Amino acid sequence: MAFLATWDKVPKEQLLAVFERGNFAGVDEMRTNERLFNRVASMGVNDIAMACQYKFTPAPALDIPVTSFEGLADNTIDAGAPRTACQRMLLAPLV
Question: Distance between CA atoms of 9 and 55, rounded to whole angstroms?
Answer without folding.
Answer: 28
